[in-house]
Amino acid sequence: MSELTRKRPEYRNIHAFKDLPSYRWPMAALVSGMHRISGLLMFLLLPLIVWLFDTSVSSEISHEVFQSAFSAGIGFAPGWFVKLVVLVLIWSYLHHLFAGLRFLLLDMNHKAVSKEFGKSSAIATLVVSIGLTLILGAKLFGLY
Fold first, then answer.
1. In the list 1, 6, 38, 115, which could disulfide-bond 96, CB 3.0-4.6 Å?
2. 8-57: pLDDT as tens digits
3. What are phi and psi for residue 77, nearest 5 degrees?
């Protein structure tokens, strides 16, 4: 049987734990999935975002509480864990922003919708969002 006449496999019941890890995701699908995950993370961590904003702008004393959360921690969570959670928030915001701009560009310019542009814009989205996250993470952890 030649390669052209070979029957392609049909997937009717996809098992998430068995089939999805072995599936080779295209770069555009990976960015789309990460866009959804970053939106979910921002939604779930919205109470922390509101608390951080409220304590940072309410008064000078509350701003000191805000700053001490990154060194002493919050409740049972140590300071490094708070910084890690904020770093995840930084990544989720940046990735959601740049992936959303990518999707808007694809929606506005129908001539740009191609496999090559989808892959190159997905790679650019990942590079920019991860690069800016590394830069802001280095500032958050006090490397500069």
1. 38
2. 777 677 777 887 778 788 999 999 999 999 999 999 999 989 988 998 89
3. -90, 125
Dist. CA 69–CA 113, nearest whole Å: 45
d(CA 139, CA 89): 14
Q: Which two tokens stand for residue 66?
A: 């805000």
The count of other CB atoms within 10 Å of the CB of residue 83 is: 18
**With 60 as the cut, is the pLDDT of residue 1 above it?**
no
How far, in Å, CA of 96 to CA of 34, rounded? 8
- Residues 111 and 130 sit within 8 Å (Cβ to Cβ): no
**Using H for helix, E for strand and C for coil, what is the string for 126-140?**
HHHHHHHHHHHHHHH
